[in-house]
Amino acid sequence: MAGAQGFVRRIELPVPALGNNIADVERLKAVLKKELATDRVVVPLGVAKTLPGRLRAFNHRLKTVLFRETFGWRVVGVEDPDGSDPLCGIALDIGTTRVVARLMDLETGEALGESGFDNPQIRIAPDVLARIHHAKDAQGLEELRASIIESVNAKTRELCEGAGLGVESVYLMTCAGNTAMTHLFLGIDPSYIIREPYIPGVNVPDPMDAVSIGIRLNPNARVFLFPNIGSYFGGDLIAGILCAGIHQREAPSIMVDVGTNAEVVLGTRDWLIACAGAAGPALEGGMSKMGMTAGPGVIDRVVIDPETCNIEVHTIEEKPAIGICGSGMIDLAAQLFLSGMVDIRGKFSKDRCGDRLVATEGIHTFELVQAPESGTGQPIALSQVDLNSLTSSKAAMHSILEVIVQQTAGIGFDDLERFYVAGTFGSFIDPRSAISIGMLPDIPLEKFQVLGNSSLEGSARLLLDPDLFDEIATIRENLTYVELNVNQEFMNIFSGAKFYPHTEKSRFPSVTIWGQA
User: Which of 132, 246, 262, 375 has the fewest CB atoms within 10 Å, i.e. the most exposed one?
Assistant: First the structure.
């Protein structure tokens, strides 16, 4: 996809002579129109200013950096065809919690560097809703916008310096984020996203000059933000679909991305259905005092011997335990249930838990790591309240899947060709654990495929293949969003899914519980 058919093209212009007085810009346009099979090429003033000198310095041969617009193509750079420095793009995943940037060579497709940082808006307002409220006036909106733009500029400079380059080597930036993050990145009032009838300020931002939004790249650089579908389905999910390729498959596949919400896309090359629901916080560890994001000393895997109830935990970098992340939380719930330490109602069993189950302010609390072995000097513990929250989240996740697959599309889980799991949640989760507690359907493990950061991957792919703009447009046209808040079946399904693994055990034939045949 990179190279000859990408955003960088090597061209040669006719040498001017007496009797042929075609100007430099017009000669460049004529060659590019033929090369790109288009009837419109735009050469902005910033490029036109340097074109005459560069054209002659390079003997009328150029390496052009282009960007595809809705009307045709735009020239964003004219460089030495024999130059050795890479011409670059930045792919950006604008997450609510974490932002990740990847520096790409536009010609070779090589990743020259990648790095992430905590979204600085967290220091101003911790979650999306708080940020939208903070942005209710111009001062608050500008504070949020400036914080993310400044951090992106700092990270871009750091990545370029790490590759031995200056920021002027970056000509293109592709960005994907949810609807609210897109608005805050651009400084567009997001207030009406959360007010009935929930209308975003923009769903399809036009490509823009980097300088117009304060991004410091090449002076002529262009920025593209993936389009949103609506208030609750953002460009990060469009990028995820592009990454998974659901929109190209003949048989139905599904993609799940769990963050602040659980966002689900189901479909084929002919149709796409999407929905979102509040199933995220407990699965991220946000509901528990011991829950935290992945890092050294954080528990990411748990194993319990069903016969002896002996517990083994694995921590990142094998440091003393200080907490547990989402994948560890799901492992823990699954192991507690499979060993009989938690019953089908999601309640702790006093007999099976033994002295690890203590009463704290009248609430049963399970000590996963007892105080002497922890890295904090305090027990790493899961309360019944924490477990109830996790149970509700897993039930919501299963209910969302059942509504979109069985109720809306009218197919069964067995009909799915692939089950893609995206995001940080998908990078570490053990599908067997998620199946054991009834969070994900009981389908063959080989159908599950981890995508990692699909938002970043979709953004990076776009930097290498202009034809993907057409696929993005097709995805938007084919996608139907289902609103769960008005779905009457959802609450009925949710009630049945609040048991482990489910009230209908036949749905989970592979789950074997201690003490049962």
Answer: 375
Contact 302, 436 (CB under 8 A): no
DSSP string, 376-440: SSS-EEEEHHHHHHHHHHHHHHHHHHHIIIIIIS---GGG-SEEEEEHHHHHH--HHHHHHTTSS
Tell me the pLDDT tens digit for each residue of 275-292.
877 655 444 444 455 566
- Residue 64 contacts residue 11 (beta carbons within 8 Å): yes
For the beta sheet containing 41-42, the strands, ordered from the edge strand earlier in sequence to the opposite edge, are 8-12, 61-68, 73-79, 41-42
475 domain residue, yes or no: no
Q: Do 307 and 217 share a domain, yes or no?
A: no
Is the residue at 106 inside a domain?
A: yes
Give, for 365, the enclosing helix (H) or strand (E).
Answer: strand 363-369
195 falls within a domain = yes
Cα 400 vs. chain centroid, distance in angstroms?
A: 19
Q: For residue 187, is it left (φ>0), alpha (ψ between -120 and 50) or beta?
A: left
Asked if residue 225 and residue 299 are part of one domain, the reply reads no
Residue with tokens 């560069």: 54
Q: Which of 175, 201, 235 is the last residue of a domain?
A: 235
- Could you give the 3-state DSSP secondary structure of residue 111? strand
Q: Mark whether 71 and 188 lie in a shared domain.
A: no
Round to whole Å and give the CA distance between 451 and 400: 20
One domain for residues 43 and 111: no
CA 456 to chain centroid: 6
Domain count, the chain: 3
At which of 62, 79, 96 does a domain end?
79
Per-residue pLDDT of 483-511, as tens digits, reads 776 667 888 888 889 999 998 888 999 99
| 43 Cβ contact partners less than 8 Å away, ≥ 6 residues apart | 25, 28, 29, 51, 74, 75
- The DSSP call for residue 230 is B
| Residue numbers in the chain where pLDDT is lower than 50 | 1-4, 281-287
CATH of the domain at 47: 3.10.20.880
SS3 56: helix
pLDDT (tens digit per residue) in 2-60: 434 799 999 999 998 888 789 999 999 999 999 999 999 999 999 999 999 999 999 99
Same domain, 171 and 283: no
**Whether residue 31 is found in the same domain as residue 173:** no
In the sheet that 298-304 helps form, which strands lie side by side, from edge to edge? Answer: 311-315, 298-304, 323-324
Separation between Cα atoms, residue 85 and residue 439, nearest integer Å: 49
Please indicate, yes or no, if residue 111 is contained in any of the structural domains: yes
Residues in a beta bridge with 405: none
Which pTM does this prediction carry?
0.89
Q: What value does the mean pLDDT of the chain take?
A: 90
Instruction: Phi first, then psi: give them for residue 71, nearest 5 degrees.
Output: -90, -15
Of 110, 15, 28, 102, the closest CA to residue 66 belongs to: 28
Residue ranges making up the domain that contains 22: 8-79
In our burial notation (b when 16+ CB lie closer than 10 A, e otherwise), range 473-490 reads eebbebbeebebeebeeb
